[in-house]
Amino acid sequence: MRPCLIIVLIGALAAVAAPSFADEGMWLLDQIPEFEPTLKAMGMQLSSREIWDPKTNTGLASATPWLGGCSSSFVSPDGLVITNHHCAFGAIQMNSTPEHDYITDGFLAASRKEELPYKAGRVTVFKGYEDVTQAVASVIKPGMEPEARAKAIELREKELVAACEKSGLRCRVGEMFGGGKFYLFRQLELRDVRLVYAPPRSIGEYGGEVDNWVWPRHTGDYSFLRAYVGPDGKPADYSPDNVPFKPERWLSLAKEPLKDGDFAFILGYPGKTMRYRIAAAVAGDTGFYYPQRIELLKDLIAIAENEGKRGKDVEIKLASQLKGFYNSVKNNEGMLEGLTSSDLAGRKRAEEAKLNAWIDAEPARTARFGNALPEMEKALAAKNATRQRDFLLGWMPISRSSSLLAAAVIIERWSFERTKPDLERKAGYQARDERTLRQRLFNMQRNLDLPHERKVLAYLFGRAATLPVGQRITAVDDALGATGKTGDEAVTAMLDKLYAGTGLADEKTRLAMFEMDHKALLAKDDTMIAFAAALRRDTVAEEHVTDTYNGEMVTLAPRYIGALAAWKSAPLYPDANSSLRLTYGSVKGYSPRDGVYYKPFTTHHGVVEKETGKEPFASPQRLLAAEKAGADGTYGDQKLGDVPACFLTDNDITGGNSGSPVMNGKGELIGLAFDGNYEAIDSDFQFNPALSRTISVDIRYVLWCMDYVDKAHALMREIGVEPQNK
Amino acid sequence: MRPCLIIVLIGALAAVAAPSFADEGMWLLDQIPEFEPTLKAMGMQLSSREIWDPKTNTGLASATPWLGGCSSSFVSPDGLVITNHHCAFGAIQMNSTPEHDYITDGFLAASRKEELPYKAGRVTVFKGYEDVTQAVASVIKPGMEPEARAKAIELREKELVAACEKSGLRCRVGEMFGGGKFYLFRQLELRDVRLVYAPPRSIGEYGGEVDNWVWPRHTGDYSFLRAYVGPDGKPADYSPDNVPFKPERWLSLAKEPLKDGDFAFILGYPGKTMRYRIAAAVAGDTGFYYPQRIELLKDLIAIAENEGKRGKDVEIKLASQLKGFYNSVKNNEGMLEGLTSSDLAGRKRAEEAKLNAWIDAEPARTARFGNALPEMEKALAAKNATRQRDFLLGWMPISRSSSLLAAAVIIERWSFERTKPDLERKAGYQARDERTLRQRLFNMQRNLDLPHERKVLAYLFGRAATLPVGQRITAVDDALGATGKTGDEAVTAMLDKLYAGTGLADEKTRLAMFEMDHKALLAKDDTMIAFAAALRRDTVAEEHVTDTYNGEMVTLAPRYIGALAAWKSAPLYPDANSSLRLTYGSVKGYSPRDGVYYKPFTTHHGVVEKETGKEPFASPQRLLAAEKAGADGTYGDQKLGDVPACFLTDNDITGGNSGSPVMNGKGELIGLAFDGNYEAIDSDFQFNPALSRTISVDIRYVLWCMDYVDKAHALMREIGVEPQNK
Fold this sequence. Notes:
homodimer, eight-stranded antiparallel beta sheet, 45% helix
């Protein structure tokens, strides 16, 4: 019975009416025809085929590459990429030295030869996708246990990916509607990425943490990269002989001034949303997940802030990590506040009661959807039984906690998985992942600070020691027990042993270990590797829980979402999963609270209004001087009487969309999306048309800064704009 | 020469064109004809004579009494007065007891008999005014020293007042344009004032200190008083036999809904503005006065907060004073920030340079205005020579510092001045002031807390000990010297002596002393009285400085302001001085910063939006329930889709205007002014059309609260509105 269900539900998801929620939705490109009349009515001048034609595999979508966690667009025939400053931050940081502080001063390559390599960077070009639901669903056999089901699906996905990648492209299977559909995405991964131009941090990050998530905003959050390929035109590692990549399509800049109410659409790669999460899951997020995460983040912040007092060099090493933690805490606190104050769990519960009543009203519906929701709740409850352990386990082997333990886990798992045939290895540890894993082991050296990492591990092990029975982490228990001590003394002794007997802090040793087979690796008796091997058994226990849960959900969630779709008889978009999506909307302000209206545009004057001369409001003198001189060029907006800085639209985006091109009805670039607004920070769970907004930097502000502040004139000409400040 | 100047300048002030600054100005009622066409064009339907007819001495102005520090209006033929909750706070507090906490719970008299007496209250009805410039100016003789000039003017003013008060009215001379004009104001002072209705503090003070000076605002800042007279219709002290006062005019409530852009005018009694202050004076305010005051206020706050820790009863006693201090600090810090960030002193200096250039351009102008500004600067510099002493001296004998020392100063000065003929006594110590002074000595008992007062005096005496040579306070120096000790020990010894030998803390003793003649008083050897007598000599020295300065300015300021008027050829309004003024404008939002627009209306929904359940956002349950039930009655606004709460206009007001009626073009009540906005907190110095706003509570919110929250139905009928929540 079960395999059929998936197919049935795909039907249910497709047979739907025109969208009822105007500007909500992160739509797959093949869904565009469903609401094309709405798009046209709003001002879209491109057809769905001009955005992406599945037959010819061409369209605007090929001009909007993924950067891995960020989005971007090509803006010249020579592989020039525009994205956010915060998306290019890695490239800027990696190339900065005390002598060349590109973070503070910005960077502008005087010629192509001087563009700076960013070896960790990837520009991943969209090459289309196809529906592989049938191929995936066919592996599910009647009577399969959930975990087996999950593993069978994983295996089939790997087979599809392996077959696809023979073409030289990178491929991945994306699961939609909780398993209702599966798509195989094809991507061209360009590995030679270079930094072309970044404004000073005081423009690209103006407002810093103070303004993060906040409107009104005045951040010039843009930077330029360039993708290079080998002389043969194929993806290649960095080489001075490489040549600029020639994209099939690139974006032109808008010629008409953008104004309030104008249509705007975005192509980008939203990372994760939870729009179909059931009430019980939201209750868990509200009552457990976010409170736990906020507490842990605050503890890690306290540790890092304290460690930073050891010296300026340590402070700098930890700065980037702390910045991430601050952002996460602000986000998570806003999220928790939003979930709590809007009582999303309660409202979902009420909606589910209505859905159940609708299902119960007809026997056919009961037969089709009836038990999905209670079974999902049961599966969730089973998974929650070890959620304290799983939460903590998730924080242990990652570089934000301890680079050394993270390295040990990567190396040990890699050599362990390599003993199996490629398709049977754990996802993330296949031959195709080797390059990425090695890069990670290399990258961690830059900010390595052992005393700080030790403090973090002491904290995590201390927490692990308080886990309830049934949720213990055996590896930690064993290691603590082996010290013959208790409490803090045991943790100290365990850490002494771990750090005394490991060679992982040394880059060469670490990279050499990555090449060793499992037996030889363990024979080295590296204490951190030995602990990683022990921890793997706990991780596998956690993977068992997850696979079981996923195996349950892959048949339940599509039925639940299918019921929702049939009940609402509206088209549904799948939750975000880093696949290319289109969101449409228009330029629109909002009222954050009674009596206040946030206008959809900020202006250049507002940059100066915020100026304090102190971080994060310390603009470059040449910016202040140009503003004071009233040098607006042709970038000024007549209605605003000033150069626009940032603008709001009601497009539906989330993390991963950063750097996305915001386009007008002609598909011309009007801005770069870079943030959401605090009042709708919980929009990953629920889109609120009155409050959810996308914050973008106006392309006119980008051009003004290029022209009047940084004199990036050659680059302006490359993107088809004649500079005025000559 | 000089007396003539004043007359010349009156000419200059009158011969002016139509107003150039649309909505700026606190206009005297006799000025209205000057801009009547503008008023009409904006929507005023009343003629200047309907507002006040100087010939018949009638008009709307008789419906807007002064409350002494606040404004108000009659809203029924039975002497019912509406004003702000914070203006009626004294009446509410005086009548509150632990058993009847009208502050928290509000108060509504079930019948007229149950209206509560407020003996310190005054309802002062406008009875017209006349120009007495000639009579005052004629006392100035050629060659007079400045101090003699000031004293001659003071004497003439007293004579005019004494003659005027023979009618049974209260009279006062108001100096306009720094002495360019003098007006004699007549007022009917009603002394039997009763509290009729006050909403709970959680409505009347909703938002408290957090929202003070802030938009968007949601405060139901209204209360009702009633003025009573003797059975003969004449002003009388409280008596149960008294009858409601019958005003000549009272206001009707607006029948049309108020909307954005609507014309609005205000009649009220603004207290003090400094719009004509010269650059040098503003520089002194920015560099000395506000910083000193903020520092001192913060020190007093620290003392009071610390003393409050002694116990709940002390905390309550000091609560009202602390509230005042918090408000002052917030105001003064905003003021200083505004003066500094707008560089008002610098801009005034630049304007003065232009004015001087204009004066210098023509010999006739040079002859007429030439030396005013430099002479004003010289007079100011002379006055500033003792400003540290004078500042501190101003804080010593007031009840906010020490009730006991304040009482001693009043009693000693009163008995000292009584030795002279009435007209020669210091202003404020004439026979006409006896009742007020006695009332002050009576009022202080309620919140008397000797340990706290002693701490404040220790602080002030400690500061006095650090004053520079030439600015010493002799009374303090002598008293400290007499202890034979130094430093803190001297202050302690001095205070020990002061407090051990005074009987002023006892109400009966205090009031009895007030009746004693000077010789007998001094013979009692009360230590605090003896110190007050010594301090009087320092005060007289300060009065000499002030009189000299005033005597200089009374001839200089009119010349300077006259030059300004001639240069700008625009009508000028005099600085506020608690005389009745009209300000006109319209309902209007504003942009506090780039990207943000403050709408001109808040709504009832916004009250609930701010609700936290904790002070100062803890609405009464019955308000929340009524809002939740959507019970808007006829008070809802169609366009807003809700009951309006507060609104903004660009009327020009300041402290003293609180409680003022805001009226539509028909002269109907649309709201009560109660605050200004933080972005224009320095509007006492400069009105900014883009930012300066009046915050008023909408009369529809008042009615909604009366109807749906407090069921003040009889009162509603009295003001001509039929309740709906029956």
